[in-house]
Design a protein that fits this description.
The chain is of the alpha/beta class and 487 residues long. It has three domains: 57 residues; 234 residues, Endonuclease, Chain A, CATH 3.30.870.10; 165 residues, 2-Layer Sandwich (Endonuclease, Chain A). An eight-stranded mixed β-sheet has the order 9-16-15-14-10-11-12-17, with helices on both faces. Strands 1-8-6-5-2-3-4 form a seven-stranded mixed β-sheet, with helices on both faces. Strands 7-13 form a two-stranded parallel sheet. α7 links the parallel β2 and β3. It is globular, with a radius of gyration of 23 Å.
C-alpha cells in the first residue's frame, strides 16, 4: 500500500511539474509584454492550483479548430470580395483631414480599402429613443435584417424589438440574429428563441458555452460586437446592448446605463456587412456576403462627400492588433484636444504612455469614466493608473449619473472613434469588437457636445486629494494592478 501511495505521489508531482514546465514554455515562447508574462509566471508559482486553472481556461486557446479553419478560409474568399468592392471607385474618399490622415492610411494598408464617403450619420444618445427608431426601421425593412449583440435581455422595450422582428419575418423579411452565448444567457433561456425561430428568424448562439467546448477554446473570448444592418444601407453600431436600461442590472446600484449608438445610411453598410458575414460563417459555416453598393444608393447621399468612415473589426481571425494600433495612431495624432469615454479603463503600457505623452506635449486630455461600477476588479485595477495620468496633466472625470457605458474617442473635434471597444485587455486583445472611425467635423462637434454633457455630470478628480489617499488603498490598487494583464 505504501508503494501505491508513493507511486500516486510521484505521478501527481510529475504531472504538476510537466504542467508548470509547459505553461512556462508557452508564456515565454510567445512574445508578450513583460508585465503580462511576469503576471502569468508569478500567478502560477504563487498560487499554483489557481494559476494553472486560470491558464487552462484563459491562457492560450482562442477558437476551436473548426472555427479556426473556417476563419482562415473565409478571409481568402473575403479578399476576393474586397477586390470587387474596390471596383466601386465612386464610394471611396480620396482625401482626409490632416488629423485623420495617418489613421486612414493605416486602415487602408492593413485592411485593403480606403474610407467610405457619402454616408448620412446620426448620433443617438438615449437608449429608449434609439430602440424606438430601430423598431421603426425594422417595420420599414424591405429585404433583410441582420443583428449581432453581446447582450439581449428580455423585458421592457427589448420585447418590442423582438415583436417587430417576428412580425417582419412573418411578412417575408429575411432576418438573422446572432447573440453571444454568455452575454445573452437569459435570452436563450426565454421563450423568445422558439417564438423567433417559428416565425422564420435564424437565431445563432455565438461562441456557445458548454463543458466540451471549454476544453478546446478560451472561455472569455466573447462576441462583443453590436451591429444592426437593414436592407444593406441602414446600419447601427455603438455601445448599446439590446436591453431596457430601466430594467438592466438595477440591483447592482450603478444606476441607468448610458450608451452611444451611431445610425448610418449609406454604403458603409457594405463594409460592416462583410464583418457580419465573417462572424456568421465562423458560427454556421454559411456564407452571406453583402451586396456591392450601387451608384443609385450613392446618389442619395452625394451631398455628404466630406464624410469618410472606416470600419475596424478585431477578434480571432481578423487583422491582429488593429484596434490597438488604431487607438495609438489616433492619440498620437491629437494636436489640441483629446477626449476619451470608457467604462473599463485598464490600458496597455503603450496606450497609457501615449495618453500621458499627449498631455505633456500640450494637448488638453480628458478621460471620462463611471464613478459607480459593475466590476469591482476593473474599478480597482483602473485606479492604479490615475496618479501617473494626473501627474502628466490629464483630467479625469468620474460620471455620477449612472454607469457610463459609452466608448468614444474624439481628436481635435474632427476625428471620432465610436464602437464597442473598452480600454482594457479583453477588448484590445481578445473579443470580437468593432469600431467606426469617422472623419467628419459635424459629427465631431455633435460628439463633443455629448461628451461635454458627460463632463457636466461628473466629478473632476483632484490630484492633491488623490495623492492623500490611504496607504492600504494604494496596496489594494497595486494588487489589482498585478492582476490587470489577466483581466
Amino acid at each position: 500500500m505504501d508503494i501505491f501511495y508513493k507511486l500516486i505521489k510521484w505521478l501527481v508531482f510529475f504531472t504538476y511539474f510537466l504542467l508548470i514546465a509547459n505553461i512556462n514554455f508557452q508564456v515565454l515562447i510567445k512574445r508578450r509584454s513583460v508585465p503580462v508574462s511576469m503576471s502569468w509566471i508569478l500567478t502560477i508559482y504563487i498560487f499554483p492550483l489557481i494559476g494553472i486553472s486560470i491558464w487552462f481556461f484563459f491562457g492560450e486557446l482562442y477558437l476551436g479548430n473548426r472555427e479556426k479553419k473556417i476563419a482562415n478560409r473565409i478571409w481568402s474568399m473575403s479578399n476576393k470580395w474586397i477586390k470587387d468592392l474596390k471596383s466601386c471607385e465612386y464610394i471611396f474618399q480620396i482625401k482626409n483631414s490632416e488629423v485623420a490622415r495617418s489613421l486612414f492610411q493605416l486602415c487602408k494598408h492593413r485592411q485593403g480599402i480606403s474610407g467610405i464617403k457619402s454616408n448620412r450619420l446620426k448620433l443617438l444618445t438615449n437608449t429608449k429613443k434609439t430602440m424606438e427608431i430601430l423598431i421603426r426601421d425594422i417595420y420599414l425593412a424591405r429585404h433583410n435584417i441582420e443583428m449581432v449583440f453581446y447582450i439581449w435581455k428580455p423585458g421592457g422595450i427589448a420585447d418590442d424589438v423582438a415583436i417587430a422582428l417576428i412580425e417582419s419575418a412573418k411578412r417575408g423579411i429575411r432576418c438573422r440574429l446572432m447573440l453571444d452565448s454568455a452575454g445573452s444567457i437569459e435570452f436563450f433561456r426565454s421563450p423568445w428563441v422558439e417564438l423567433m425561430r417559428k416565425s422564420g428568424i435564424q437565431v445563432v448562439e455565438a461562441l456557445k458555452l458548454n463543458l466540451i467546448r471549454i476544453l478546446f477554446r478560451r472561455l472569455d473570448v466573447r462576441q462583443h460586437r453590436k451591429i444592426i444592418l437593414i436592407d444593406d444601407y441602414i446600419s447601427y453600431s455603438g455601445s448599446m446592448n439590446l436591453i431596457d436600461p430601466i430594467l438592466f442590472k438595477q440591483s447592482s446600484g450603478v444606476g441607468k446605463w448610458i450608451d452611444l449608438m451611431t445610425r448610418i445610411e449609406g454604403p458603409i453598410a457594405t463594409t460592416i456587412g462583410i464583418v457580419y458575414s465573417c462572424d456568421w460563417e465562423i458560427e454556421t459555416g454559411l456564407k452571406i456576403l453583402p451586396k456591392l453598393p450601387s451608384r443609385n444608393v450613392l446618389n442619395n447621399y452625394s451631398r455628404n462627400n466630406d464624410t469618410s468612415i472606416q470600419v475596424i473589426a478585431s477578434g480571432p481571425g481578423f487583422p491582429e492588433n488593429m484596434i490597438h494600433q488604431a487607438l495609438l495612431t489616433a492619440i498620437y495624432s491629437a494636436r489640441n484636444e483629446l477626449i476619451i469615454t470608457t467604462p473599463y479603463f485598464v490600458p496597455s503600457d503603450d496606450l497609457l504612455h501615449a495618453i500621458c505623452t499627449a498631455a505633456q506635449r500640450g494637448v488638453q486630455v480628458s478621460i471620462i469614466i463611471p464613478l459607480y461600477h459593475d466590476s469591482i476588479l476593473v474599478k480597482w485595477a483602473s485606479r492604479v493608473f490615475f496618479s501617473e495620468l494626473l501627474a502628466a496633466g490629464v483630467k479625469i472625470y468620474q460620471f455620477k449619473k449612472g454607469l457610463l457605458h459609452s466608448k468614444s474617442i474624439l481628436v481635435d473635434r474632427q476625428l471620432s472613434l465610436v464602437g464597442t471597444v473598452n480600454l482594457d485587455m479583453r477588448s484590445l486583445w481578445l473579443n470580437f469588437e468593432i469600431t467606426l472611425v469617422i472623419d467628419d467635423i459635424n459629427f465631431g462637434h455633435n460628439l463633443a457636445f455629448i461628451q461635454n454633457q458627460y463632463i457636466c455630470d461628473s466629478f473632476l478628480l483632484d490630484k492633491k486629494k488623490w495623492d492623500m489617499r490611504s496607504y492600504w488603498t494604494q496596496v489594494i490598487e497595486k494588487i489589482f494592478y498585478f492582476l490587470s494583464p489577466l483581466l
